[in-house]
Write a structure and sequence with these properties.
2 domains; Phage_capsid-like_C; 24% strand; 37% helix; 4-stranded mixed sheet; alpha/beta; phage-related protein like fold; 7-stranded mixed sheet
């Protein structure tokens, strides 16, 4: 991890300390935040989120750089002796640039101008490097859907036929038996959850002139748009899908953990979240995949809450790979989770790995020059088939619901 990232994390921690000081001052004086203090607190909350996004972006770029270095190192280790070509033809040069030929040696007669060709600089090679659509699409789907990044069990299959997952709904129970008395029967109960393959797609058409004349990374732009469109549709159903002609969302499959108090418009208290935490039994609660899911606006409210020990329930992540924590468990955000409100299921907690996501056949990104031939448009389409269901519905994931009034 770079020193710059560490400084950003320290800046985020300092911002959080300043926000806590505002809240503590108001609490000590038994009053709400003043208008000026509320404005400062909101600004600090925005800074916390902004710095977190910046750290994430830099870490992803460092990972891409590391992957690229590893790929070049792998190529270098397997490199064969170069073929000696006195005057390489244009065809041979194209093969080399496409990666079909490992290397060749050129012995020019005149002076040589040595330059580095890199992917990072557009005019020095970046403009001739193709964009990997599949990787970018998956990346954007994860960024849009907090469910996918929260740690569900992801199943990738080549086909889209129904995929059934057997599960238990009840266990056998033993009992004290008197001497010579009959032993009561207690059988386990079983069920199965079915994962199908619902199709999500988007169509994008681009003028031929734009493709021929563009000076920007058009492929990257199209992949971003397609990924966001498909990811938004699929991710929304992974969160709150009804299960009827669409995936069953994790909220839909969750069970009630805690209901809020009346007269507070569905808002929760610190005690409500602690009760929700302990409403999930220890085997699920202590799972490495256990975590919280809520929308960003809800996180802002959580940051104000203190436990009975007068410590804040929310703690910012200060190390690489360590997310923000609530009662010691990671916090994931998803814009499709309901906002706090009467009867709204605004906070989830539990073992997210009990939610199964099925992807059938991978992501398809296809091009057609003939579909809109009469308009001279090039058509791109992106398709993905998938489904989701909470396989263990015995209490692995529970939700907080606002009171009815």
């Amino acid at each position: 991890m770079s020193d710059f990232i560490q400084r950003l994390r320290e800046q985020r921690a300092n911002t959080w300390e300043q926000a806590k000081a505002l809240l503590d001052t108001a609490a000590a004086e038994n009053r709400d935040l003043s208008a000026e203090e509320q404005s400062s607190y909101d600004r600090m909350n925005a800074d916390l989120d902004s710095i977190a996004e910046r750290v994430k972006s830099i870490e992803e770029q460092e990972q891409r750089n590391a992957d690229m270095d590893a790929a070049f190192a792998s190529i270098a280790e397997g490199r064969k002796a170069p073929a000696i070509l006195a005057e390489p033809t244009q065809n041979e040069l194209r093969k080399f640039l496409r990666g079909e030929s490992r290397s060749f040696e050129v012995r020019p007669d005149g002076p040589v101008n040595f330059r580095d060709l890199t992917k990072g600089t557009a005019t020095a090679g970046g403009n001739i490097v193709p964009t990997s659509f599949y990787n970018q699409l998956v990346q954007h789907m994860i960024e849009v859907s907090g469910i996918l990044s929260a740690g569900p069990t992801v199943l990738q299959t080549s086909g889209g036929e129904n995929f059934e997952v057997p599960t238990t709904t009840a266990h056998s129970s033993g009992a004290l038996v008197a001497e010579a008395a009959a032993i009561a029967e207690s059988d386990p109960a079983f069920a199965k959850r079915t994962l199908g393959a619902y199709k999500y797609g988007v169509l994008i058409q681009v003028a031929r002139e734009l493709i021929d004349d563009t000076g920007v990374d058009l492929e990257g732009y199209l992949s971003m748009q397609a990924g966001r469109a498909v990811g938004n549709a699929f991710g929304a159903h992974l969160a709150t899908g009804t299960g009827s002609s669409q995936p069953s969302g994790i909220v839909t499959g969750s069970s009630l953990g805690v209901t809020g108090g009346t007269g507070v418009a569905g808002a929760f208290t610190a005690d409500n979240l602690i009760d929700l935490f302990y409403s999930v039994i220890a085997p699920y609660r202590n799972s490495p995949s256990a975590g919280w899911i809520m929308r960003d606006a809800t996180v802002a409210a959580v940051r104000k809450l203190k436990g009975s020990d007068n410590n804040y329930l929310w703690q910012p992540g200060l190390q690489a790979g360590v997310p923000d924590l609530l009662l010691g468990k990671p916090v994931h955000t998803d814009p499709n989770i309901a906002a706090t409100g009467t009867t709204a299921k605004s906070v989830l907690f539990g073992d997210v790995s009990a939610y199964f996501v099925r992807l059938a056949g991978g992501v398809r990104f296809e091009r057609s020059d003939e579909y809109a031939f009469n308009s001279d448009l090039v058509t791109f389409r992106c398709l993905v088939r998938g489904d989701g269901v909470l396989v263990d519905q015995t209490g692995a994931v529970k939700h907080f619901a606002g009171a009815a009034t």
